[in-house]
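agent> Task received from the user: take the single chain below, predict its 3D structure, and emit C-alpha coordinates. No templates, no multimer pairing.
agent> Plan: (1) validate residues, (2) run structure prediction, (3) serialize to C-alpha coordinates, (4) report one or two observations.
agent> Step 1 OK, no nonstandard residues flagged.
tool_call: predict_structure(input=
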Amino acid sequence: MHRRLAILAGALAALAANCVFAADFAGNTVEWIIPFKEGGGSDKWARFYAPMLAKALPGKPSVVVRNMPGAGSTRGTNYFAARAKPDGLTILGTSGSTQFPYLLGDRRVKYEYKDWQVVLASPTGGVFYVNPALGVRSAKDLVKLKGKKLLYGSQGATSLDLIPLLAFELLGLDVEPIFGMRGRAAARLAFERGEVNIDQQTTPAYLSQVVPLVKAGKAVPIMSWGALAKDGRLVRDPTFPNLPHFAEVYEMIHGRKPSGPAWHAWRTFFVAGFPGQKMVFLPKGTPPDIVAVYRAAFEKIVSAPGFEKKAAKRLGIYPQHTGAAAEATKHLATTIAPGDRKWVRDWLVRRFKVKLR
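)
tool_result: status=success, residues=357
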Protein backbone atom coordinates (compact mmCIF):
# COMPACT_ATOMS: atom_id res chain seq x y z
CA MET A 1 0.00 0.00 0.00
CA HIS A 2 2.73 2.44 1.01
CA ARG A 3 4.63 1.52 -2.16
CA ARG A 4 1.57 2.33 -4.30
CA LEU A 5 1.10 5.66 -2.55
CA ALA A 6 4.76 6.50 -3.06
CA ILE A 7 4.50 5.68 -6.76
CA LEU A 8 1.29 7.74 -7.08
CA ALA A 9 2.87 10.66 -5.23
CA GLY A 10 5.89 10.53 -7.47
CA ALA A 11 3.72 10.45 -10.57
CA LEU A 12 1.69 13.45 -9.38
CA ALA A 13 4.86 15.39 -8.57
CA ALA A 14 6.26 14.69 -12.04
CA LEU A 15 2.95 15.73 -13.62
CA ALA A 16 2.94 18.99 -11.68
CA ALA A 17 6.53 19.69 -12.62
CA ASN A 18 5.81 19.22 -16.31
CA CYS A 19 2.42 20.93 -16.42
CA VAL A 20 2.35 24.07 -18.55
CA PHE A 21 -0.03 26.73 -17.35
CA ALA A 22 -1.35 29.14 -19.96
CA ALA A 23 -0.36 32.76 -19.41
CA ASP A 24 -2.98 35.25 -18.30
CA PHE A 25 -2.52 38.94 -19.13
CA ALA A 26 -5.49 40.33 -17.18
CA GLY A 27 -4.86 43.91 -16.07
CA ASN A 28 -1.70 44.25 -18.17
CA THR A 29 -0.77 46.21 -21.29
CA VAL A 30 0.97 44.59 -24.25
CA GLU A 31 3.29 46.97 -26.08
CA TRP A 32 3.51 46.26 -29.81
CA ILE A 33 6.67 47.89 -31.17
CA ILE A 34 6.45 49.01 -34.79
CA PRO A 35 9.83 50.36 -36.00
CA PHE A 36 8.16 52.71 -38.47
CA LYS A 37 6.30 56.00 -38.26
CA GLU A 38 2.57 56.34 -37.74
CA GLY A 39 0.33 56.07 -40.77
CA GLY A 40 2.55 53.73 -42.78
CA GLY A 41 1.70 50.24 -43.96
CA SER A 42 3.19 48.48 -40.92
CA ASP A 43 1.44 50.86 -38.54
CA LYS A 44 -1.93 50.28 -40.21
CA TRP A 45 -1.37 46.51 -40.21
CA ALA A 46 -0.60 46.49 -36.47
CA ARG A 47 -3.56 48.72 -35.64
CA PHE A 48 -5.81 46.42 -37.70
CA TYR A 49 -4.76 43.44 -35.60
CA ALA A 50 -4.33 45.11 -32.18
CA PRO A 51 -8.02 45.23 -31.08
CA MET A 52 -8.54 41.62 -32.14
CA LEU A 53 -5.38 40.50 -30.34
CA ALA A 54 -6.54 42.25 -27.16
CA LYS A 55 -9.73 40.19 -27.21
CA ALA A 56 -8.03 36.92 -28.16
CA LEU A 57 -5.32 36.90 -25.47
CA PRO A 58 -6.22 35.43 -22.05
CA GLY A 59 -7.28 38.16 -19.67
CA LYS A 60 -8.04 40.56 -22.51
CA PRO A 61 -5.12 42.98 -21.93
CA SER A 62 -4.80 46.35 -23.63
CA VAL A 63 -2.64 46.19 -26.77
CA VAL A 64 -0.91 49.47 -27.53
CA VAL A 65 1.07 50.14 -30.72
CA ARG A 66 4.31 52.02 -30.07
CA ASN A 67 5.99 53.56 -33.12
CA MET A 68 9.80 53.68 -32.98
CA PRO A 69 10.99 54.78 -36.44
CA GLY A 70 14.57 55.49 -37.45
CA ALA A 71 17.64 54.06 -39.19
CA GLY A 72 15.66 52.10 -41.74
CA SER A 73 13.63 50.41 -38.95
CA THR A 74 16.79 49.09 -37.23
CA ARG A 75 16.46 51.54 -34.31
CA GLY A 76 13.21 50.14 -32.96
CA THR A 77 14.16 46.57 -33.81
CA ASN A 78 17.50 46.87 -32.01
CA TYR A 79 15.63 48.29 -29.01
CA PHE A 80 13.35 45.25 -28.96
CA ALA A 81 16.31 42.86 -29.21
CA ALA A 82 18.15 44.56 -26.34
CA ARG A 83 15.32 45.62 -24.01
CA ALA A 84 12.22 43.46 -24.47
CA LYS A 85 11.54 41.19 -21.49
CA PRO A 86 10.40 37.63 -22.22
CA ASP A 87 7.14 38.06 -20.30
CA GLY A 88 4.76 38.35 -23.24
CA LEU A 89 4.15 42.07 -22.66
CA THR A 90 6.34 43.27 -25.54
CA ILE A 91 6.02 42.09 -29.13
CA LEU A 92 7.62 43.30 -32.35
CA GLY A 93 6.18 43.80 -35.81
CA THR A 94 8.72 43.69 -38.64
CA SER A 95 8.47 44.45 -42.33
CA GLY A 96 10.46 43.76 -45.47
CA SER A 97 12.38 46.95 -44.67
CA THR A 98 13.51 45.27 -41.44
CA GLN A 99 14.47 42.03 -43.15
CA PHE A 100 16.50 43.76 -45.90
CA PRO A 101 19.27 45.27 -43.70
CA TYR A 102 19.59 41.89 -41.99
CA LEU A 103 19.90 40.06 -45.32
CA LEU A 104 22.40 42.62 -46.63
CA GLY A 105 24.65 42.32 -43.59
CA ASP A 106 24.10 45.96 -42.55
CA ARG A 107 26.27 46.76 -39.52
CA ARG A 108 23.45 48.76 -37.94
CA VAL A 109 21.66 45.46 -37.35
CA LYS A 110 22.08 44.29 -33.78
CA TYR A 111 19.30 41.71 -33.92
CA GLU A 112 19.17 38.05 -34.82
CA TYR A 113 15.95 36.57 -36.19
CA LYS A 114 16.96 33.10 -35.00
CA ASP A 115 16.61 34.34 -31.41
CA TRP A 116 12.92 35.13 -31.74
CA GLN A 117 9.69 33.16 -31.85
CA VAL A 118 7.38 34.09 -34.72
CA VAL A 119 3.64 33.99 -33.96
CA LEU A 120 2.19 35.51 -37.14
CA ALA A 121 3.35 36.05 -40.71
CA SER A 122 1.33 38.28 -43.02
CA PRO A 123 2.07 38.10 -46.74
CA THR A 124 1.24 40.96 -49.04
CA GLY A 125 1.61 41.74 -52.71
CA GLY A 126 2.45 44.66 -54.93
CA VAL A 127 1.42 46.08 -58.29
CA PHE A 128 3.51 47.94 -60.85
CA TYR A 129 1.58 50.54 -62.85
CA VAL A 130 2.35 53.29 -65.35
CA ASN A 131 1.11 56.64 -66.60
CA PRO A 132 -1.24 56.06 -69.58
CA ALA A 133 0.62 58.78 -71.50
CA LEU A 134 3.42 56.23 -72.02
CA GLY A 135 1.14 54.38 -74.43
CA VAL A 136 1.32 51.07 -72.57
CA ARG A 137 -1.90 49.16 -72.00
CA SER A 138 -0.63 45.80 -70.74
CA ALA A 139 2.54 43.88 -69.92
CA LYS A 140 2.92 42.86 -73.56
CA ASP A 141 3.42 46.54 -74.43
CA LEU A 142 6.41 46.99 -72.12
CA VAL A 143 8.76 46.50 -75.06
CA LYS A 144 7.57 49.94 -76.22
CA LEU A 145 9.27 51.45 -73.16
CA LYS A 146 12.76 50.28 -74.06
CA GLY A 147 14.88 53.33 -74.72
CA LYS A 148 12.40 55.68 -73.03
CA LYS A 149 13.39 57.54 -69.88
CA LEU A 150 11.26 56.31 -67.02
CA LEU A 151 11.11 58.06 -63.66
CA TYR A 152 10.40 56.18 -60.43
CA GLY A 153 10.03 57.72 -56.95
CA SER A 154 12.09 55.75 -54.45
CA GLN A 155 12.80 55.68 -50.73
CA GLY A 156 16.25 54.26 -51.41
CA ALA A 157 17.98 51.40 -53.17
CA THR A 158 18.25 49.27 -50.03
CA SER A 159 14.60 49.78 -49.01
CA LEU A 160 11.69 47.67 -50.27
CA ASP A 161 12.33 49.46 -53.59
CA LEU A 162 15.24 47.08 -54.15
CA ILE A 163 12.69 44.61 -55.56
CA PRO A 164 11.23 46.86 -58.31
CA LEU A 165 14.60 48.46 -59.09
CA LEU A 166 16.22 45.09 -59.70
CA ALA A 167 13.13 43.97 -61.64
CA PHE A 168 13.42 46.99 -63.94
CA GLU A 169 17.04 46.10 -64.65
CA LEU A 170 16.16 42.48 -65.36
CA LEU A 171 13.47 43.64 -67.79
CA GLY A 172 15.92 45.96 -69.55
CA LEU A 173 14.03 49.16 -68.76
CA ASP A 174 15.83 52.50 -68.52
CA VAL A 175 14.61 53.70 -65.14
CA GLU A 176 15.97 56.70 -63.27
CA PRO A 177 15.05 56.47 -59.58
CA ILE A 178 14.25 59.73 -57.85
CA PHE A 179 15.58 58.99 -54.37
CA GLY A 180 14.57 60.77 -51.19
CA MET A 181 10.87 59.90 -51.11
CA ARG A 182 9.69 59.71 -47.51
CA GLY A 183 7.54 56.68 -48.14
CA ARG A 184 5.61 54.93 -50.88
CA ALA A 185 2.71 57.33 -50.29
CA ALA A 186 4.99 60.23 -51.23
CA ALA A 187 6.02 58.38 -54.39
CA ARG A 188 2.38 57.80 -55.29
CA LEU A 189 1.62 61.50 -54.87
CA ALA A 190 4.58 62.28 -57.14
CA PHE A 191 3.03 59.93 -59.71
CA GLU A 192 -0.33 61.69 -59.41
CA ARG A 193 1.36 65.06 -59.95
CA GLY A 194 3.17 63.77 -63.04
CA GLU A 195 6.63 64.11 -61.50
CA VAL A 196 7.30 60.40 -62.11
CA ASN A 197 5.67 58.20 -64.71
CA ILE A 198 5.91 54.71 -63.19
CA ASP A 199 5.19 53.47 -59.67
CA GLN A 200 4.47 50.45 -57.53
CA GLN A 201 2.46 50.09 -54.33
CA THR A 202 1.88 47.24 -51.94
CA THR A 203 -1.58 45.71 -51.98
CA PRO A 204 -3.28 47.71 -49.17
CA ALA A 205 -2.18 51.05 -50.63
CA TYR A 206 -2.94 49.93 -54.18
CA LEU A 207 -6.48 48.86 -53.28
CA SER A 208 -7.29 52.04 -51.38
CA GLN A 209 -5.32 54.69 -53.28
CA VAL A 210 -4.47 53.47 -56.79
CA VAL A 211 -7.60 51.58 -57.86
CA PRO A 212 -9.49 54.93 -57.99
CA LEU A 213 -6.75 56.25 -60.32
CA VAL A 214 -7.13 53.19 -62.55
CA LYS A 215 -10.90 53.67 -62.70
CA ALA A 216 -10.37 57.34 -63.60
CA GLY A 217 -8.00 56.39 -66.43
CA LYS A 218 -4.99 57.96 -64.70
CA ALA A 219 -3.00 54.74 -64.11
CA VAL A 220 -2.54 51.47 -65.99
CA PRO A 221 -1.76 48.31 -63.97
CA ILE A 222 0.91 46.22 -65.70
CA MET A 223 1.94 43.36 -63.42
CA SER A 224 2.07 42.10 -59.87
CA TRP A 225 5.27 40.87 -58.28
CA GLY A 226 3.56 37.55 -57.67
CA ALA A 227 2.96 35.23 -54.73
CA LEU A 228 4.66 32.14 -53.38
CA ALA A 229 2.98 28.74 -53.73
CA LYS A 230 3.41 26.07 -51.05
CA ASP A 231 5.97 24.30 -53.25
CA GLY A 232 8.01 27.50 -53.60
CA ARG A 233 6.92 28.40 -57.15
CA LEU A 234 6.21 31.99 -58.11
CA VAL A 235 2.50 32.20 -58.98
CA ARG A 236 -0.02 34.92 -59.68
CA ASP A 237 -1.04 37.13 -56.80
CA PRO A 238 -4.47 35.88 -55.57
CA THR A 239 -5.64 39.48 -55.08
CA PHE A 240 -4.79 40.30 -58.72
CA PRO A 241 -5.29 37.04 -60.65
CA ASN A 242 -5.73 38.85 -63.97
CA LEU A 243 -2.29 40.46 -63.81
CA PRO A 244 0.80 38.47 -64.87
CA HIS A 245 3.49 38.11 -62.23
CA PHE A 246 7.05 39.32 -62.72
CA ALA A 247 8.51 36.05 -64.03
CA GLU A 248 5.73 35.82 -66.63
CA VAL A 249 6.51 39.33 -67.83
CA TYR A 250 10.22 38.55 -67.98
CA GLU A 251 9.45 35.60 -70.25
CA MET A 252 7.16 37.77 -72.42
CA ILE A 253 10.01 40.23 -73.02
CA HIS A 254 13.00 37.91 -73.26
CA GLY A 255 11.40 34.72 -74.60
CA ARG A 256 12.89 32.58 -71.80
CA LYS A 257 12.40 31.97 -68.11
CA PRO A 258 14.49 34.06 -65.70
CA SER A 259 17.70 32.51 -64.40
CA GLY A 260 21.15 33.43 -63.14
CA PRO A 261 22.44 35.29 -60.08
CA ALA A 262 20.34 38.43 -60.61
CA TRP A 263 17.16 36.33 -60.71
CA HIS A 264 18.15 34.34 -57.62
CA ALA A 265 18.91 37.56 -55.77
CA TRP A 266 15.60 39.11 -56.85
CA ARG A 267 13.67 36.06 -55.67
CA THR A 268 15.39 36.05 -52.27
CA PHE A 269 14.46 39.67 -51.59
CA PHE A 270 11.01 39.23 -53.08
CA VAL A 271 10.26 36.54 -50.49
CA ALA A 272 11.52 38.78 -47.68
CA GLY A 273 9.60 41.77 -49.03
CA PHE A 274 6.24 40.27 -49.96
CA PRO A 275 5.39 36.65 -48.96
CA GLY A 276 7.19 37.22 -45.65
CA GLN A 277 6.78 40.95 -45.44
CA LYS A 278 5.19 41.42 -42.03
CA MET A 279 5.79 39.20 -39.00
CA VAL A 280 5.09 39.33 -35.27
CA PHE A 281 7.79 38.17 -32.87
CA LEU A 282 8.26 37.41 -29.18
CA PRO A 283 11.72 38.13 -27.73
CA LYS A 284 14.53 35.71 -26.94
CA GLY A 285 13.87 33.49 -23.94
CA THR A 286 10.07 33.73 -24.01
CA PRO A 287 8.64 30.70 -22.13
CA PRO A 288 6.85 28.05 -24.24
CA ASP A 289 3.49 28.65 -22.54
CA ILE A 290 3.51 32.32 -23.54
CA VAL A 291 4.54 31.45 -27.10
CA ALA A 292 1.70 28.89 -27.25
CA VAL A 293 -0.80 31.45 -25.98
CA TYR A 294 0.16 33.99 -28.66
CA ARG A 295 0.08 31.41 -31.43
CA ALA A 296 -3.35 30.26 -30.28
CA ALA A 297 -4.57 33.87 -30.11
CA PHE A 298 -3.52 34.67 -33.68
CA GLU A 299 -4.90 31.36 -34.91
CA LYS A 300 -8.22 32.23 -33.24
CA ILE A 301 -8.18 35.63 -34.95
CA VAL A 302 -7.43 34.44 -38.49
CA SER A 303 -9.84 31.49 -38.32
CA ALA A 304 -12.77 33.50 -36.93
CA PRO A 305 -15.91 33.78 -39.10
CA GLY A 306 -15.80 36.92 -41.21
CA PHE A 307 -12.07 37.52 -40.75
CA GLU A 308 -11.15 36.79 -44.38
CA LYS A 309 -13.71 39.26 -45.68
CA LYS A 310 -12.60 41.89 -43.18
CA ALA A 311 -8.92 41.33 -43.92
CA ALA A 312 -9.42 41.34 -47.70
CA LYS A 313 -10.44 45.00 -47.61
CA ARG A 314 -7.38 46.00 -45.59
CA LEU A 315 -4.69 43.43 -46.41
CA GLY A 316 -5.75 41.77 -49.67
CA ILE A 317 -6.59 38.11 -50.28
CA TYR A 318 -3.66 36.38 -48.62
CA PRO A 319 -3.53 33.50 -46.12
CA GLN A 320 -2.30 34.70 -42.75
CA HIS A 321 0.26 32.23 -41.40
CA THR A 322 0.49 30.93 -37.85
CA GLY A 323 2.24 27.95 -36.26
CA ALA A 324 4.45 25.86 -38.55
CA ALA A 325 3.48 27.93 -41.61
CA ALA A 326 4.71 31.10 -39.90
CA GLU A 327 7.98 29.36 -38.97
CA ALA A 328 8.50 28.30 -42.60
CA THR A 329 7.82 31.84 -43.80
CA LYS A 330 10.26 33.27 -41.27
CA HIS A 331 12.99 30.90 -42.47
CA LEU A 332 12.49 31.84 -46.13
CA ALA A 333 12.29 35.57 -45.41
CA THR A 334 15.43 35.74 -43.27
CA THR A 335 17.78 33.32 -45.04
CA ILE A 336 20.10 34.24 -47.92
CA ALA A 337 22.85 32.33 -49.67
CA PRO A 338 26.27 34.00 -49.29
CA GLY A 339 26.61 34.23 -53.06
CA ASP A 340 23.27 36.01 -53.41
CA ARG A 341 24.20 38.48 -50.67
CA LYS A 342 27.51 39.27 -52.40
CA TRP A 343 25.83 39.71 -55.79
CA VAL A 344 23.25 42.15 -54.42
CA ARG A 345 25.78 44.17 -52.44
CA ASP A 346 28.06 44.45 -55.51
CA TRP A 347 25.10 45.46 -57.68
CA LEU A 348 23.96 48.16 -55.24
CA VAL A 349 27.45 49.66 -55.14
CA ARG A 350 27.92 49.45 -58.92
CA ARG A 351 24.45 50.62 -59.96
CA PHE A 352 23.57 53.19 -57.29
CA LYS A 353 26.90 53.97 -55.59
CA VAL A 354 25.39 52.75 -52.33
CA LYS A 355 27.74 52.93 -49.36
CA LEU A 356 26.88 49.80 -47.44
CA ARG A 357 27.52 49.96 -43.72
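agent> Step 4: summary for the user.
The first strand starts at residue 29 and ends at 34.
agent> Done.
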